[in-house]
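Methods — Computational structure assignment.
A single polypeptide chain was analysed. Its primary sequence is given first, followed by the predicted tertiary structure written as structure tokens.
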Amino acid sequence: MEAIGFVEDLRAAYSSARCAVVPLLAGGGTPLKFVEALAYGLPVIATPLRGQRPLDVRDGENCLLAEDGEAFAAALIRVLADGAPELGRRGRELAAERYSIEALSELLPPDRPTAAPWGRRTCVQGLAGRSEIADLRPKPLLQS
């Protein structure tokens, strides 16, 4: 295991990894690193998500959840020794079905304006943990 710090190219980092570990003991909001690892198709080993928005994950189906350090280490050893391509594949399917931009945009009410993926308006996590709609269009320069 290697802590590599800031990563310029996430795709390259994920493609060289054999699994992702998400040992979150506390926190709030949605654990985006968890969803991101699922989307990259990596087997994910995580602690149960407490204090966060629940994800629709199932232990042993699309990730491995471990209650304590011993169980976490055993799951990690098992994945590193034997691989877990089916777990990664099912996690990727879950991310596409439930957490992709397209899937999340379907949750918006029909009368709410939407934009193309990565469009001018996007949902961002606010400082207080609330989701907010941010207008990312360039602001016009002041005319004199």
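Note: Residues 39 and 95 are 5 Å apart (CA to CA).
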